[in-house]
Amino acid sequence: MTSLSQQNAAAKPQADVKVLREEIVLPDSINLVIEMVDYMKDYYAASEYGHPYKFPQPPRRWSAAFIAEAQSIVQCVLRAKRNPVRVDWDAEEYTDILHRNELGSSETRESMFRDVFLPPEEFRHGLTSMTEPMTIIDIHDRILLWYLPNALTKGCQTKLLDISRYLDPLLGSNRESEGRRKRKHASVNSGWLNISPGAHKSKDHTGAEYTLEVSKHMRAILSDDKGPTWLSEGQECLALLSASLSIMHPPLLGAGLQSTFAIRDAETDPSVRAAMDAWPCAFNFVEIITNCCVSRRRSTLTRPEWFDLMCSVGTHSDASLVLDGLNLSLDYSPGTLAAFSPRLIPYSIPMGSPDRIWYTFGMQNTLHKRYRIENPGWVKPDNIAEYIRRAHPT
């Protein structure tokens, strides 16, 4: 039996933020995301198109630093948009082949992809290092990747590093971190956390008959009543990064907010509802990896058309985000954002000096299916322009 919330979510496919705000009572935790979405798209419109669009006036309670952080991301997105690099293949065709070969040998599959779906022509001579903002697009202008070095201000980087230290006890006690000692000169334990206010217990428990659970790391954060926590101190950072989707993949932001509201309204478990009320984010989960390398991985949580938003934080200076299928090694210094689908583009992060903290903000396809939220699909530069102009009729 489908709940009213599930019906409402399905009835508003790819709903924009304005519609959601008018039709749904928003929890306090998400209001800052909505305000930041408005500010970033207004600032984007004024910066990109000029007259008649005007630079927005932010809420008076916002600090000058918070405003500068939003402006920095918008300006970096605009620079990346003006620097597209094209692959000569169709992302839909890639996706079709990926779906047909997911149960086969991973080595055979990945070798086939490297032979058939070649990197951009300018990267075919070998692994190419990039340090400038750019996008990767396919032959039909679908955006496959946003690369945004130095998108975060120094203040925002410091804030993200500081709140990450609240997680150190969790990292030190995490089963996945056992045997990993705090590295020399590191201020944060090595480890991995997955923070989600509502998720399926496992990949085998995704049907409508199964209830959602608060992830164990989220439960630990919510149970800490002795002072500031990663969640309470990180609200501005989480809102800022969520809102950045409004200028990189607007339909995905709308779908993410729909799933957030649907989980909050439909689930009866008090712990899930309490976690959703405290969740200041349009993404379904946040993965945090500290002072570790990341072996080559291709995610199955998301969809090829969507973006995970990855963020580099720390004091390191030697990190790289390797996308070997594109022959790319992206400088992954602190303050870098990268938005792409790890289902479509596998990646790795080699080991280096501490402190190195990788944030990945993502959405789970199984949750969107659970609430019958329409797939927001691919995004093209023209889609973003249309969204911005629709939000600002002249």
With helices defined by DSSP (H or I, 4 residues minimum), what is the helix count?
A: 15
> Would you identify the CATH architecture?
4-Layer Sandwich
CATH topology: Double-stranded beta-helix
Structural class: alpha+beta
Average pLDDT for all residues: 86
Rg over CA atoms: 20 Å
Q: Between the first and last Cα atoms, what is the distance in angstroms?
A: 44 Å
Largest sheet: 8 strands, mixed
Shape descriptor reads globular
Q: Can you list the strand order of the major beta sheet?
A: 1-3-4-11-8-13-6-5
What's the domain count?
Answer: 1
Q: Could you characterize the architecture of this molecule?
A:
The protein is of the alpha+beta class. The chain has one domain (4-391): Double-stranded beta-helix, CATH 3.60.130. 40% of the residues lie in helices and 15% in strands. It contains 15 helices and 13 strands. The protein has helices spanning 4-11, 17-23, 28-49, 64-81, 91-100, 106-116, 154-164, 168-173, 216-223, 230-233, 235-243, 250-266, 270-277, 365-370, 381-391; strands spanning 84-86, 128-130, 134-137, 143-148, 191-195, 285-290, 294-297, 308-314, 320-323, 328-331, 337-340, 347-349, 356-362. An eight-stranded mixed sheet has the order 1-3-4-11-8-13-6-5. Strand 3 (134-137) and strand 4 form a beta hairpin. Helix 1 (4-11) packs antiparallel against helix 12 (250-266), helix 3 (28-49) packs across helix 4 (64-81) and helix 3 (28-49) packs across helix 11 (235-243). It is globular and about 55 Å long. Residues 1-14 and 175-182 have low confidence and may be disordered.
